[in-house]
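Table 4 source record.
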Amino acid sequence: MSEKLFEALCQAVIDGEEEEAEALVKQALEQGVDPLACINQGLVKGIEEVGELFSNGTYFLPELIQGAAAMKAALEILEPKLVGKEQRAVVGTVVLGTVAGDQHEIGKTLVGTMLTANGFKVVDIGVDQKADDFVAAIEESGANIVGASALLTTTLQELKRLIDSIAEAGLAEKVKVMIGGAPVTQDFANEIGADGYADDAIAAVAVARKLIGAAA
């Protein structure tokens, strides 16, 4: 019975069916199915398939967004039910945000969902965040990665300001900085001293793992 539920949950994420995913995890909990198994054998498999379909060009941004939304909705129901030894192993902690002067949300949220799916603890501080806000979140959470996005050419220099602020706070040796966003390039990342660059949410997971030496 559980296997069929896991398969249905996986498919709900692949199809981007948010309400179906919510209904299935509620059903699973009512039946006493392990929440962690629902995540690992249902949701994670589903979002990994969505990522693969996106990477090979079968899926596009709308399908990626829908799949991520379905997974996020189901996770919000399941994660509070995880207790004690059932808590998911944390690969690393990521502070995620969009820089000051920029209100773009979708890309950042997708990155957060994909990182969460792959075992990272994500502290999403939102949009229009100053460098000091990032630094405060790093200090509070003990994060070992910062993910910052800029979707406007006018806010690109906020990424450099963030890296400078992290260094000034004495955190440069403790936290890796990865950046992304439409106007961001690998050359720009190199220029400002960022540790990593990703051009989409799927690539961001691989970059984050590489930055902290986590196995793929």
